[in-house]
Amino acid sequence: MELHAELERIIADPALAESVAQLVQKHVAAAHAIVAHRDTELHAARSKIQALTLELAHLKRMRYGVKSETLDAEARDLFQETLEADIAAAKLELERRQADSALPATPALQKAPRERAGRQALPEHLPRIEHRHEPASCTCGQCGRDLVKIGEDVSEQLDVEPARFFVHRHIRPQYACRACEAVSAAPIPPAVIDGGMAAVGLLAWVIVGKYMDHLPLYRLEGIAARGGVTLARSTLAEWVGRLGVALNPLAERLAELLRQRTILHADETPVRQLDPGSGKTHRAYLWAYRSNALETGPPIVVFDYQTSRSGEHARNFLKGWQGSLMVDDFGGYKALFNADVTELGCFAHARRKFFELNHAQPNAIAQEALVRIAALYEIERRGREMSIKERTVLRSREAAPLLESLHAWLKDTRVTVANGGGTAKAIDYSLKRWPALCRYATDGALPIDNNPVENAIRPVCLGKKNWLFVGSERAGKRAAAIQSLLATATLNGLDPADWLRDTLEKLPTCLNRDIDSLLPLARAS
User: Fold this and answer.
1) What is 16-72 written as a DSSP string?
2) What's the confidence (pLDDT) of residue 72?
3) Of 217, 205, 288, 166, whose CA–CA distance to 496 is shortest?
4) Angle between helix 400-415 and 422-432 (nearest 10)
5) Where does a domain end: 102, 136, 157?
6) DSSP secondary structure letter of residue 395
7) pLDDT > 90 in the chain, percent
8) Whole-angstrom Cα distance, residue 501 to residue 202?
9) Within a domain: 196
10) In what order do the strands lie in the sheet with 323-327?
11) Those residues with Cβ within 8 angstroms of residue 18's Cβ, 6 or more apart along the chain or in another chain
């Protein structure tokens, strides 16, 4: 009404004043609609940015949160690359949302500077290919005078070449004697596969690809095809079979050396074995034995493929062996323990019972047990770099009292817990195995848990998702022998491919008495 009155005062014609008033009101309504639409878009953008910010914070907590001996933060993605990819995607989407939303610059929404100081230096042993980038002109763009070099800006990028195939061409000139008509030529050196077209580098590539990277032969066949090389799957399979036979004596010798150690870890994992007659698979087992990580000798891991989980297999492998054996509570090991073999209990398994209980539903008893066990592992962390004698003293002084207190608390708590529940089962597991669990505290050389051998098995467990099943018992034993050698090389800080290439070069001329010189233990020492 005020607008109409003002227009009538200014404009003498009432009709013209009414027309102008309607036009102004129309533009005002349109402006209000635009503002309302912008407010809606701004609210949606702010909500999306807030959601992305919360998601990014959650992903960062998963990545950078405390990982060891926690009560509620152990359920993490098995494959860290998934988490890394999610973080990168969330960051990029958040940056784009902020840029597209035209929000006013506020400290909460400003783009954080990219962190560069923490980037890891590239390995010094890698070859460097230098690319020099000179300015387009050697004269100053402002005054035209000659430029003087005052320094260099050096940056490095890591690069890789795919599998590169090449051919070794061996030329042996032949010479004849005119007098006696004899012909001479340089001898052909013995090879691990006589008369084969594959050099040791190619053979090592196939073996490492199949048994370490867990690539089926058809995938290796495809990789070669992309490089313009035809490697029939049947040919690859023949090489694998021949190399398995050639390397088996080294694996057997490795097992002999392992049984000379007085403290061992043992564990087993199921694998599927194909039954050709029925077209189905049945369960077989890969048994793993590892040397003690607290000893000073080079580490050894040996895999033993068997068609069942019978404890007889462990007894046969360790027949005549004397020492301390770290295992879980699987009944197949029980017959081993006697006057010559001492049982060591795994505290990681005991802890896992309480962790799973608390993870399913917060449990005050489980949390108390986890805190007490964490204190024992903290002592182990501090004693990791000590000598065996120093670690023995540390355990006797600090761990033994904590173990005694934990044992008394478990017994007192068990009386208050009803039978059959998860809490009772977790407590009973520890009480049942208590002598074996606390035995480690009497000697600084004894391990607290079975994690070293479980870590050795883990790559095989992940690889099973690729090869799905073992084709035969012979194939399983061949895989166990080869994986024993490659895993031991890895434990000793060697590049398995380099070790295998060198070993295949020397193996044909190596005498039986010198076989130890080919083992990855000798290369590491």
Assistant:
1) HHHHHHHHHHHHHHHHHHHHHHHHHHHHHHHHHHHHHHHHHHHHHHHHHS--SS-SS
2) 40
3) 205
4) 140
5) 102
6) I
7) 46
8) 9
9) no
10) 301-306, 280-291, 263-275, 323-327, 341-345
11) 4, 7
- What is each CA distance from 221 to 26, 197, 203, 248, in whole angstroms? 73, 16, 13, 25
Tokens encoding 133: 């980038």
Token pair 């074995």 is found at 273
Please tell me the total count of domains within the chain. 2
364-383 vs 400-415: helix axis angle to the nearest 10?
170
Q: Which residue among 102, 136, 165 closes a domain?
A: 102
The two counts, helices (H) then strands (E), for the chain are: 17, 7
- With contact defined as beta carbons under 8 Å apart, do 220 and 211 qualify? no
Are 196 and 240 within 8 A, CB to CB?
A: no
The sign one gets for the Cα dihedral 197, 200, 205, 208 is positive
Q: Lowest mean pLDDT of 80-89, 159-168, 400-409, 505-514, name the range.
A: 80-89
How many angstroms separate the CA atoms of 169 and 507, rounded?
A: 22
Whole-angstrom CA distances from 261 to 204, 255, 466 are 30, 10, 34
Which of 132, 191, 204 lies closest to 163 in space, CA to CA?
A: 204
Considering only CA atoms, which of 315, 361, 359 is closest in space to residue 341? 315
Q: Note the helical H segments in 336-472.
A: 347-360, 364-383, 388-394, 400-415, 422-432, 434-438, 451-467
| Residue 363 amino acid letter | N
To the nearest 10°, the Cα dihedral for 521, 484, 203, 223? Answer: -130
First-residue to last-residue Cα distance in the chain: 99
Cα(516)–Cα(506) distance, rounded to whole angstroms?
12
DSSP secondary structure letter of residue 517: G
> Residue 398 has what DSSP assignment?
I
Q: What does each C-alpha distance from 352 to 427, 428, 439, 513 come to in angstroms?
A: 11, 13, 19, 46
Q: Does the residue 228 lie in any domain?
A: no
Full domain range(s) for residue 329: 245-524
Tokens matching residue 17: 């004043």
Residue showing tokens 């004849």: 176
- Residues 493-504: what's their mean pLDDT? 95
Q: What is the pLDDT of residue 107?
A: 47
73-102: pLDDT as tens digits: 333 433 344 556 666 666 767 777 777 766
In a domain, 162, yes or no: no
Return the pLDDT at 19.
73
The DSSP string of 470-483 is BS-HHHHHHHHHHH
Query: In this structure, is residue 98 part of a structural domain?
Result: yes
Q: Tokens in use for 117? A: 């100081």
Residue with structure tokens 């061992």?
A: 264
> How many CA atoms lie within 13 Å of 342's alpha carbon, on the beta-carbon side?
15
**Cα torsion angle, 72, 75, 81, 83, sign:** negative
